[in-house]
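ERR on first pass: missing label on line 2. Operator R.T. fixed the label and resubmitted. Corrected input:
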Amino acid sequence: MGSEKRFHPAIMTLAWPVAALALLVVFNLAFTPGFFGIELRDGRFFGTPIDVLNHAAKVAIVAIGMTLVIATGGVDLSVGAVVAISGAVAAMFVTRSQASFPLVILAALAAGGVAGLCNGFLVARLRLQPIVATLVLMVAGRGVAQLITDGLIITFEHRALSSLANTAFAFIPIPAWIALALATAVGLFTRRTAAGMFVEAVGDNDRACRYAGVNDRAIKLGVYAFCGVCAGLAGLVECSYIKAADANNAGLFLELDAILAVVIGGTSLSGGRFSLTGSLVGAILIQTLTKTMYMHDVSADVAPLPKAIAVLAVCTLQSPVVKDRIAGMFSRGSA
Amino acid sequence: MLSDLLTRRTVLAAFCMAGLSLAACEKKAEDTPADPKAGATNKPAPSDKPAGTLRVGFSQIGAESDWRRANTESIKGEAEKRGIELVFADAQQKQENQIKAIRSFIQQKVDVIAFSPVVETGWEPVLKEVKESGIPVILTDRAVDVSDQSLFVTFIGADFVEEGRRAANWVVKSTGGKAMVAELQGTPGSAPAIDRKKGFEEVIKAHPDIKIIKSQSGEFTRAKGKEVMETFLKSSEGSQINVLYAHNDDMALGAIQAIEEAGKKPGVDITIVSIDGVRAAFEAMVAGKLNCTVECNPLLGPQLFDAVEALSAKKSIEKRIVTKEGVFEQAQAAEAIKTRQY
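pass 2 clean. output:
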């Protein structure tokens, strides 16, 4: 671990995604006219950076839950389907019942939580491989969502629910606030208590953990359930954004973006140490990249390519081998 | 070691044999009850039982959209109305499921096999099997890419290129041949996205004052349609856009929200034309937010069973049957919405 000699490890992990984001921002400053144009309109900022925040928030919310799951050495492939379920539940509640808004939110989050508990049960109790366990819900979940909406796109005119993703508080879109609040809460909970250490310990070596008296099963159950709730929250944001629940397309491939955000952020897929800030930066980086493609009229056929290259570059720079090389170069230079 | 391996193999082989003979039994059980063609000559009344009725095997792609559901319901409903026995199989968007379904249709000796192929390629082997069995094949909604055109008798479906042309013609007519167009494309590589783009560009080529200044995929969904339109409006050419052409209604419905949030009036500041003609699009037209939708008719049940009956009566049918489709504008929306089934 050559890097630890000079920098705090958390800073080293964050360095590359932040550098990549900075590079992208500089590129857009130079080559994308109008990318940074922000104006005040109807009590909210209006402009591309705000859109980036708004869209990145959805990925970030899911990525926060995903970070904890990945830190325990697992993965949750079902988040996209859970987004669809939660959106479907919310849309059905506001169109078919007179339920109050907090109840609607509670129902959608509970749906996510139940889905997460199912995953947690399969992984923690039945000891299924996380990929297999969550694949079940990834495939079946969309069917559940379709069942709830009867296969239709449910459009709603509910002021509170549709303002969730389409209005601003203190000029910044509400989803961005939600993501920030969630990240802060989870960050405080994991870093100010022993919870974060337990999660990392389970990810490093669950058996050793159990022998040390940590209930690894409860922790795994907990993180999957929490990840489900996060997906439920993202589902609310997604359906609010288009004012409709689209069971077929809501959250499609979101699990991939979320995992990508986590990995770019420096959390290793093998479990252990995690970085919530890294995941947030990862989510913003992915969305900035997507937006840059749109702004530059990159045809949809080839758009995934630059995205893949950027991701590959960040991941390569984070590999232990490359990291040690670079750290070695620095220490040799200073010696 | 060797003996161990041998016994294991024998056991395995025994299992396989048992499985095979079981399968054979099942096959026989399926075969015996009906050779429907035998009784097909004396035509019974539609209300009569299955003995001499036509049997059609239909493999549907799945239930991925409202459009597809309407398509399925039209086919099921029409079969029931005409007293044709429909063996329906949902492929859940997987080609291997469709191939399995088609093979089981051959086993069941249906009179006609119809299907909407999930993808264009890879159909030759199974269609050859069908041809050897002598059962005619009808393609619905989507075409297949095969070198031997005799593998199917007809293709019933919308002409996506024509839909693109109709959308373009409407734009030419309503703008007087002067427009700055933003285009929301469908899923990259899909037939409707390719053809609807092609048809549109074909027509506007003759009108130099109609320019597509922005074009990007919205993947046929509302969320992407909204997100991409948001970006279009904020780009440096954003303020010039006065026409939006969306490859399906859902993307247009998403884009309408983006236009409203940018402080413009959809349908007034930006004229919007999209394709499909789903119910929500008519509602948007009634609200004045969408200007025109080019119909892509999923209700092809009647045309499908017309073809089936023509085949059973040994009449010749066209190789390409285009579904009946219209173009709807705001003025007709309030009236048309009443009869909309999907």
